[in-house]
């Protein structure tokens, strides 16, 4: 277990391993990145998209911020919400999310969810490992 108290600081550099899988279409995106972890937040950049994840005991707030869009998700034990915002056009769409599985551990997040409007099923797994020394 990685603990902020172990190292006497609020910010810990970690390895972030995981994937975002579209179970409906069979698409799978795997990431292995360096990230920054605080007591309740994880941040990393993958494929020019900044991921910010706010972690609470029973819910997750995920924000994906790219050049052209901002995609936010709010996950709780059974339900959630998503918003997709296109920066260039100033257009956004809200979507309902049905959460099938939500696991929040010290070093792991696993979410299996369905976008209600499209029926697309996704899995998101994020594991935080080790400590990077500067």
Could you characterize what this model shows?
There is one protein chain. The protein is globular and about 40 Å long. The longest helix has 4 residues, at 4-7. The protein has one helix and ten strands. With 134 residues, the protein is mainly β.
In short:
By secondary structure, this protein is mostly beta strands.
Tell me the number of strands: 10
Strands of the widest sheet, in order across it, are: 1-2-3-4-5-6-7-8-9-10
N to C succession of SSEs:
HEEEEEEEEEE
Label the overall shape.
Answer: globular
Which stretches are low in confidence, meaning pLDDT under 50 for 5 or more residues running? Answer: 1-8
Q: Pairing-aware structural class of the strands and helices?
A: mainly beta
Strand content: over 45%
Q: Quaternary state, please?
A: single chain
The mean pLDDT is: 89
Task: Tell me the major beta sheet.
Answer: 10 strands, antiparallel, barrel
**Using only CA atoms, what is the Rg?**
15 Å
Give the terminus-to-terminus CA distance: 20 Å
Estimate percent helicity: under 10%
- Tell me the number of helical segments per DSSP (H or I, 4 or more residues long): 1
Task: Chart the SSEs and their pairings.
Blueprint: H1 4-7, E1 12-22, E2 27-37, E3 41-46, E4 49-55, E5 60-65, E6 69-75, E7 79-86, E8 91-104, E9 108-115, E10 121-129
Antiparallel strand pairs: 1-2, 1-10, 2-3, 3-4, 4-5, 5-6, 6-7, 7-8, 8-9, 9-10
Which features does this protein show?
mainly beta; single chain; ten-stranded antiparallel barrel
